[in-house]
Amino acid sequence: MAASDIMNAPTASESARERAAQYIVSRHRFRPTEALPWLFAIAAYFIFPDRMTFANQVAIMIMFALSLDLILGYAGIVTLGHAAFFGIGAYTVALMLARFGWTEPISGLFAAAIVTGFFGFILGWFTLRYRGLTLIMLTLATAIMLQETGNLRSDISGGYDGLPGLTFKPLFGVFNYDLYGHVYYLYTMAVLVVVFFLVRRIVYSPFGQALTGIRENVRRMHAVGSPVHRRLVTVYTISAAIAGVAGALFTQTNAYVTLTVFDFDNSAKVMVMLILGGTGRLYGAFIGAIIYLVLEDGLSKFSPTFWQFGIGLLLVLAVLFAPRGVLGLFENAAAYLSKRFKS
Amino acid sequence: MPQYANIAVSILFDGLAYAMFLFITSVGLSVTMGLMNFVNLAHGAFAMAGGYLVVSLTRSLGVPFIPSLIVASVVVGAVSVVFERVLYRRLYRATDLEQVLLTIGLAFMAIATYTYFYGPIPKSVPLPRWLEGDVNLGFRTFPSYRAFLIVVGLFLVAVLWYGFERTNIGAKIRAAVDNRRMAQSVGINVDRLFTLTFALGSGLAALGGGLAIQLLGLNPSFAVIYLVLFLIVVAVGGLGSLKGTLLAALVLGICDTAGKYLFADAGGFFIYAITVLVLLVKPAGFYGRE
Fold first, then answer.
1. Do A305 and B112 touch (CB under 8 A)?
2. Domain segments of chain A as ranges
3. A312 and B90 in contact by Cβ < 8 A?
4. Is residue B68 within 8 Å of B54, Cβ to Cβ?
5. Is B265–A152 a contact, with Cβ atoms under 8 angstroms apart?
6. Which of B113, B115, B235 sits opposite A134 (nearest CB)?
7. What is the rounded radius of gyration, in angstroms, for the C-alpha atoms of chain B?
8. N or C: which end of chain A has fewer CB within 10 A?
């Protein structure tokens, strides 16, 4: 395991330190296969020009799943309330527009990131002392309480009917939103690129290594003097901010928002996507969100019941036969093939 | 009777009935989670299955309500053993996350299957005459059905308490919840114990599901909507603790009812606020092991 390699290294020795540093740098290097999803994203723009609204939803969910991967896949924080942050981000831009008439989209994203990050910091500070079922229930209850608060003040939030007709200013004051969602898609993809490189930078940094250490063996991290709680709160704050940006993009590109963004379903859905793709490997969020949403789109056409059965079956099969997600299956296949070729 | 006392009595009475439903449905989940640390999100699906079995028995086969309840809980308890043996046992050593995903997958499949066969519209069942209307307790009248629920609940509390505290099997379960390895090394077959409690817990959940039809309404999303409540009761009460589950069910049931009576707008807010408060102070719940 990668994290334990470093921890086992005798850090007093200069050469071992050197090797650890080199290891981290080499992990951070780009591999050619990493270009694939981005080439696919560009290709999608030209191949499916009439499905850009759908592609935009996929990109938003990828970002949301990516934020979850940061805490679940890398730091091992199991939460069933991540929709709380998506919802706060979504409502930040919605309320800025509805109450104060703030229509500039990009500054809205920054505002959403700051507000959600702040919430993430406060919640993380209190809840990340706990683990397991207690943490799951705390995160879940927080998301539902936010939803209930919104419902209580439906004069402000619009309640379950939502706030419709939120039209934002053209991007950079120039690019108007077209009916087919081309501008939305490019806008979301541009934000996704920025967020992705941020997340990638984080997980391959020494800080990211420390998170993996906490996931693998929290006692040992305490023992080597790592400030576990502070690191968890830091990554939780970052993850919350990213989920908030995804939520803000959701509001901006749909031009409406309702309290359903806080739903338990939303939290569960993003987790399912991530697990299907594979946790703790960055691109799992991409694969998972695409598989989930494409299947949902296809199967729901028959009937929503059919789709619900399908996703349930998919989950059961994934846990029994592909516990490391679709990417894990690929890795197994690759390892198997390379072994065959060598012998 | 003065107005406020009347309201207080109503809150206590309805809260108690609700608490009994929560207790009956959650107690099995608590014990199985305490025994094997297994997070079973399909528990609500077993409750729902029990409810629909009662609907079918009473509506299609004309079986009276009370025998239907008993048949439903026995059948669901027996069927749950198949799930436990075939699917669940593969994941005893897996992570929480994998257990969560497998069981939520099963719950989704159950919801879809029941929606397909029964449709999304809430169902009702024909009740015997003595369960309809009100019962007069001297100082005021109460809805008979809720009174019945409270009686059944108290009866089960007594039976389970006796089974847990006074029988050999109960002692074995308590020992295994306390320290599974130690229990195994003194020769307790924890695996079989788990199958037994799992069946019992699922059977009780099915009974709770059947009783809930008239109290809360039954449609396929029951499996997930009330699951959150069961999990809250288990987490607040403490894993594997009968006493804790009862206390949590009472506190949450009565507070939730009070919240809905007194502040209709705030709806479900209270139950979650209490959950957060309790868990922040006592992370393992009322009677859980820290």
1. yes
2. 38-287
3. no
4. yes
5. yes
6. B235
7. 19
8. C
Q: Is the pLDDT of residue B57 over 80?
A: yes
ipTM value for the complex: 0.84
Shortest Cα–Cα distance, B8 to chain A (Å) = 24
- Domain range annotation of chain B: 24-221
Name chain A contacts of B97, Cβ cutoff 8 Å. Answer: 72, 78, 275
Query: pLDDT by residue (tens digit) across A172-209?
Result: 666 666 666 788 888 899 999 999 999 999 999 889 99
3-state secondary structure of B136: strand
Q: Identify the pLDDT of residue B80.
A: 95
Q: CB count, 10 Å around CB of B268?
A: 17
Backbone CA torsion sign across A276, A278, A280, A282: negative
Instruction: Compute CA distances A92 → A99, A116, A128, A248, B241, whole Å.
Output: 10, 8, 24, 7, 42
Which chain B residue has the Cα nearest residue A137?
Answer: B232
Which of A131, A148, A152, A216 to probe by mutation at the B interface, max B CB count within 10 Å? A148
A8-51 pLDDT tens trace: 545 556 787 788 778 777 777 777 777 788 888 888 888 887 78
Checking if the pLDDT of B47 tops 50, the result is yes
Comparing C-alpha atoms, which of A278, A108, A282, A259 is closest to residue A197?
A: A282
pTM: 0.85
